[in-house]
Amino acid sequence: MKKRSRNNLVRRYLTLLVGLLIMSFGVAFSIKAGLGTSPVSSVPYVLSLIVPMTVGETTILINCLLVLLQILLLRRQFELVQLIQVPVAIAFGYLTDLAVWVLSPIVPAAYWQQWLFCILGILLVGIGVSFEVTADVVTMAGEGVALALCKTTKLPFAKAKITVDCSLVVIAVVLSFLFLHTLAGVREGTIAAALFVGMTAKQVNRPMSRIGNLLLA
Length: 217
What we know:
Helices cover 78% and strands 0% of the residues. It contains 8 helices and no strands.
């Protein structure tokens, strides 16, 4: 990785912070929709229903565990710079709690309103991911595990990401039935998020790359 100036790094981390804020509202809209969260948020959400922790706090916990999983998978290949994922996860967790609090007075009543919130959540998460990619300073823990799988198993990134997402959804389902005796956090919205978050990010990446070339060069 080429050496970057201090001002350049500040701009990049501010871009990442904006992306985290946008993503946190995407997660909050998905939670408010009640149609299931994204695969990456499914386990933290279900866990928040089981233990006396907020969804932001469980997000921090799960992301830290995903960083630990990367270390176990990569061992000596793990780059210490990737430990930055931990403070990023902490920031994202507390921003998620802030977003959930901001949206707390809003309750979608009709099914079409739930889908509207779900779609808003998907769009915001996709846009936030695009900001993260444009910032190009650190990956989120979920993508970090997928990249670790790529290195250790030679799987293409797309297949590794699907493996990680499906594993998280299965864990969320098992936790739901085991502790809540019902299905929570995984519904039709989860499938929609799995299909369209990446597509949204890909579309937003095109104009964002031009902005990034201007502001972050």
